């Protein structure tokens, strides 16, 4: 069961999110396939994510995610449970995501609980939807990391769209965007805790 989506963002209480992430090999071909399948695009949004943990990294060690996200002035606070990988390379995890009125209030509340911001990441995202399918196709651009597609929805719908995309995308990527960013930064010999369009260098 995928998380309920409100205004282009997942808002759920204990929903099970299933997704499959792939590097895009041929962007024009991906767009052509989505058009042929009847998907229609939302406007591009800039997502600014902040990840929080204890000072000694207890959440990360348990494969838990606590995230603050700001998109076009809309703020959500999200929690993700451990990932369970499926045979096809996709994964499922519990996700709880709730709207918040003000980012500073959320930051203050997290600080009161002894949590600190350990990572910041930006991405440009365009979502594609098709009536009758639960799946949401997200085309993402990340600074320095390139372009990816995320398929979020029911497992059968993910498999159907992935078959249609074929060789236009790479194999399922097991690493999160944060882990991909950390790997890239490590390869560059950099120790920054952020990867944003303004500071990627």
UniProtKB/TrEMBL annotation:
Residue ranges of every copy of the CYTH domain listed in the record: 15-183
Family annotation (Pfam families): CYTH
InterPro entries per the UniProt record, alphabetical: Adenylyl_cyclase_CyaB, CYTH-like_dom_sf, CYTH_domain
Protein name in the entry: Class IV adenylate cyclase
Organism: Planosporangium thailandense
């Amino acid at each position: 069961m995928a998380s309920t989506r409100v205004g282009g963002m997942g808002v759920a209480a204990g929903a099970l999110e299933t997704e499959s992430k792939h590097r895009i090999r041929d962007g024009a071909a991906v767009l052509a396939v989505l058009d042929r399948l009847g998907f229609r695009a939302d406007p591009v949004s800039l997502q600014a994510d902040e990840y929080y943990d204890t000072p000694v990294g207890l959440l990360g060690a348990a494969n838990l995610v606590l995230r603050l996200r700001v998109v076009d002035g809309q703020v959500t606070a999200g929690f993700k449970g451990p990932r369970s990988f499926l045979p096809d390379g996709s994964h499922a995890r519990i996700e709880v995501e709730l709207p918040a009125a003000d980012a500073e209030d959320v930051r203050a509340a997290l600080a009161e609980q002894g949590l600190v911001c350990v990572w910041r990441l930006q991405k440009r995202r365009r979502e594609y939807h098709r009536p009758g399918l639960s799946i949401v196709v997200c085309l993402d651009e990340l600074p320095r990391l390139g372009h990816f597609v995320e398929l979020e929805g029911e497992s059968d719908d993910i498999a159907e769209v992935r078959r249609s995309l074929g060789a236009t995308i790479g194999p399922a990527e097991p690493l999160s965007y944060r882990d991909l960013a950390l790997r890239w930064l490590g390869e560059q010999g950099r120790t920054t805790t952020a990867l944003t369009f303004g500071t990627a260098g």
